[in-house]
Amino acid sequence: MTKHIVGQGIFQLIVLLVLTFAGDSILNIPTGHKASAPSAHYTIVFNTFVFLQLFNEINARRIHDELNVFDGFFRNQLYIGIQIIQVVLQVLIVQYGGRAFKCAPLTGGQWAVCLLLGALSLPVGLLLRMVHASSMPQFFSSCQEVEVVREPSARSKELWIRGFARLRTQIRVINAFKRSVAQRRLLTEKSI
Question: pTM, whole model, 2 decimals?
Answer without folding.
Answer: 0.68
